[in-house]
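Hello,

Our lab assistant flagged a job as stuck in the queue for most of the afternoon. It eventually completed. Since we weren't sure the result was trustworthy after the delay, we are filing this so someone can double-check. Below is the sequence as submitted and the structure that was eventually returned. Let us know if re-running is recommended.
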Amino acid sequence: GTMKHYGVTKRYFQHFLEKKKHVKDIFLSELNYKFVTDFEMFIQQQNFLNAAQPCGKNTTMKHIERLRKVINLAIKNEWIDKDPFAKFKVSFTQSNREYLSEEELKFNTYDFKKVTESCPVPVFGLGAEKTPLQLQALQLASEEINDGARGVVFGRNAIQVKDPFAFQAALCEVVKKGLSPQDAVLKYDLKDQ
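-- returned structure --
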């Protein structure tokens, strides 16, 4: 993750040099406070790298922080004498995130097909609450796959059973091979406690 983020900052920096400074590279000694503030404004105003909109203040500050770390390394190695960030203050905007209501957190598999059909990326079904019978858990998995899920994520339904290995083998056959839940229960001799 960290290297990827530095790569994005590097692309913004290269784009800034080409579009605003009309150069491909600069000497470290050319960096100053104005350069840093120009780069900050450039990031906030640019809409490139397939972004839906320009970077917000906090994202811009993350890019500035990454540049600052590279400049600090140059200062420590005595590649430059003065710190272009000496007068620059990195400031973030406090965000007050709203939490989902209990109603919004409720998830019905009734609408699951709509979710999988409208989502551009693969969706996995969740195991939800512990079902009383292993057959019910396998039926849930089968329904989620039939509704377009690319796989399932089961916790307690796969582990809190008499024979977790047998249940997981049955679950794999239901999800990957399309075996019916009833046939999976019979094939793996699943017994409820």
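-- support follow-up --
The delay was a queue issue, not a problem with the job. The result is valid. The longest strand covers residues 124-126. DSSP finds nine helices and two strands in the chain.
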